[in-house]
Design a protein that fits this description.
With about 1100 residues, this protein is of the alpha/beta class. Helix content is about 40%, strand content about 15%. The protein is built from 38 helices and 35 strands. The radius of gyration is 31 Å and the shape is globular.
Amino acid sequence: MPSSNRLSPIPQPPARPVVGNMLSLDANAPVQHLTRLAKEYGPIFWLDMMGSPIVIASGYDLVDELSDEKRFDKVVRGALRRVRAIGGDGLFTADTREPNWTKAHNILLQPFGNRAMQSYHASMVDIAEQLVKKWERLNADEEIDVVHDMTALTLDTIGLCGFDYRFNSFYRRDYHPFVEGLVRSLETIMMTRGLPLEHLWMGRRRTVLAEDVAFMNKMVDEIVAERRKSAESGAASADDKKDMLNAMMSGVDRATGEQLDDVNIRYQINTFLIAGHETTSGLLSYTIYALLKHPEILKKAYDEVDRVFGPDVDAKPTYQQVTQLTYITQILKESLRLWPPAPAYGIAPLQDETIGGKYKLKKNTFVTILVTALHRDPKVWGPNPDAFDPENFSPEAEAKRPVNAWKPFGNGQRACIGRGFAMHEAALALGMILQRFKLIDHQRYQLHLKETLTMKPEGFKIKVRPRNDRDRSAPPSSRPGTAAQGPSVQSARTRPGHNTPLLVLYGSNLGTAEDMATRVADLAEVNGFSTRLAPLDDFAGQLPKDGGVLIFCASYNGAPPDNAGKFVSWLHGELAPDAFKGLRYAVFGCGNRDWAATYQSVPRFIDDALAAHGAKRVHERGEGDARSDLDGQFETWFAALGAAAVKEFGLDSGFSRSAEDAPLYSVEPLAPTAAGAVAALGGAAPMTILVNRELQNKSGAHPSERSTRHIEVQLPAGASYRVGDHLSVVPRNDPELVDRVARRFGFSPADQIRLRVAEGRRAQLPVGEAVSVGRLLTDFVELQQVATRKQIQIMSEHTRCPVTRPKLAAYLGDDADSGERYRAEILAKRKSVYDLLEDFPACELPFHSYLEMLTLLAPRYYSISSSPSGDPARCSVTVGVVAGPALSGRGLYKGVCSNYLASRREGESVFATVRETKAGFHLPEDSRRPIIMIGPGTGLAPFRGFLQERAAQKAAGRSLGPAMLFFGCRHPEQDYLYADELKAFADSGICELFTAFSRGDGPKTYVQHLLAAQRARVWELLEQSAVIFVCGDGSKMEPDVKATLMQIHRDCTGSDAEAAANWIADLGATNRYVLDVWAGG
């Protein structure tokens, strides 16, 4: 039985015998896991770590009480205690009662005071100039590893200011050996958990740790010895140095009259190097990330830097100028609030205490102050504490805030002594960066945290471009958008520049809406608009009233895309009736009618919400259906929008493209070179394939001709997931198809080319760099999407053959026959542009025009089919491999991502990232609540994770409510996926299992038939507030399931069809009918 709650009424998550909560805590991301637990269990809870209790406190009221240093003091335990291997009894890792802590604290207060900060300023500028000079010398398309360069900056700064040592990180390919040893040591320390027999698998790491510590100690000891030698020899420079080492060597503790010995000086230097560079580098990295995601805040930051520092980058910023960067300081403080690099600290009561009026703590009980959760307490930070808002640190806001609500530097006398140093260094560096550079989020990076001793973004890379005087003087409405840079070809012909501001926003997971928005922004720029392109979330909380706003947005099972969730939540909030008065806008929605219940729900809501709060709709909302001629629907809507815009804004022309305009790309053949690595977009990281096995039976009396793969991947450090989440996989196109396409245009896949982009145009492909044709076609573009009528028109324009051109033109007319011909011969047969090039070899479409037609290769989403309760460092997906005769009549059609995954061998990597489902597709918080799961085929995937999680909950002693699983497949001897597992779950009471076979020996049966047969049991659970989860085909299966449920309602209540429809709609609205479905066919 799990351990009883010894600290009641403090809540405790379910524990296991002996180990308690030790193994259930995510070892790779413990702080993030604790933050999630704080949301679940409230402002205080406790964990049993193999018999040792740890109390986690995060509510402001409790932390305020725990900050009383007369009752509570810092304790050095766990990972921090293990850091003493490096830091000894330095300030950070010493106990308060150790003599050297008091002595060092008294001596070091002066070298960290304001006067000392002025003496360090010149050294800080020295190192910051090395950073910006490195960035200035980068080629236009080179990436910057933000965390690496911020680490180099802060390490070199503390080295020079601390003890006059130059690590010269910006002149090295790798880190200084000291830093490499330090990083390895911290990783080993954080991996150590005190588990039984841990030394058996940590033996080699412990040996390396000892070697690294010895090397670091030797190096620091030599620096101290050299300084003493210089001082003893009377060298004038030794005593003149105003650094921290000099203060430690000459300083005297007034209370004891003693000085620090050389061993403790070594530990203090190691402490400064750890704490001084780890935390500040994280702060700067988070801040750059936040600025890129909040362009209006970035604009204010630029304005302040331009006002204070001015345009002359050769003039060194003064100490006084840095102190005038007040808004920059607010930004840094807000970064420390949301992402404190030191996310927790430990304390203990000095005697038995009661906090919060009811929570009893025995003397020396280890209490962790969870700063990440404290900084999100709604009682202090308002109803939206996750929002990045520097106004939280305006003078007025700070004056009103209670004193212990913001604790990024710790508490009281044990707070970080280098706080002023870190803030000045960060403000200086950020100011110098913004003075010189435009920041470019070319990856569309999504925050992924890596936890060691501190927390930092992982895989965060940017590009920069030098700012010019035009950037500094331009008003907000005419700021450059996201036009791609790189060598340009000819200047694109543009219409007369009326400079009407146009903000083009998109919400897109799969790239369709983003592609449309990009095309429109590019076309608007050519036609004289001053455009800006951004995700919807970048403008959550604010929309400009000048000019116009165009919004392109998709829905995902009724939920907004990942980059539109904040924007939609903002519209759902409390808005003034005239909140958008003066705003002029239009909306185009992308959807798929296979999701009939939620089709266009998000763009419809956005459109209605803007109009309801005073905005002016310039043109009616457009709808594009991916199951039909989406591009044709868009072209029709967009043509009418152009006419409406001409009238609304008083323009001479709307949106048009002329044959005289420069092409987006030109293609320059190059001599062969080594190809670079593929950059993962959207935060994707390499994940190693651990298992790739076939689930369908290929032998016996009924061998399957289809394929379903069970694939397990190793998650990168710091990644985590919940059951019901998705794995977003970046696919690669089939090598055979890539070879055929390349050769159609006269290339070999190995041929090297360089793309150049027309000036002022937006490009999504890599420009200005050498790239192979094969890599371009494999990693960047969709090759199998259905050809649109616009694309066929471009093909026709590049066709001189008198026989071929009329055939292409036959798809393009405005008459009904042309539309029907396109739907029957192109859309129904899923013919791509390449298929048409094969059908019409006389078409002379050039390669640069072909590239301009194509959309970026979009990630594919797979439901995760495992639970982190088993192994949080890995997850699985269940992939139905799509392969069969092509509807176009040309050979075999292969699904892009499913075949790519199927071809990956164990040990190889794929680029992927975990995505939280926005459809509420998660187990109920109360494990006793009944659930009904319906998932035929690979729709079983999330439910396998559900069942694994329920099994873990049961093993931990939690009570389980009833669960019904309806699974369907063709034949019990072919595609009964995970049959043994499902039967075992049923036998152990984890679920009730019902299986339908559509091609077995009995009558053809589908899941809806089993559902109807079990109507009494289904209704019984529904009466107990059961949640229904449906996963799988959204075009046929889900509507049939819904119809069956409505019939069950009618049978069990005697209601009519309208009442049943209202009932199922209410279930959906209250998250009791939850879908994770995709388009069939």
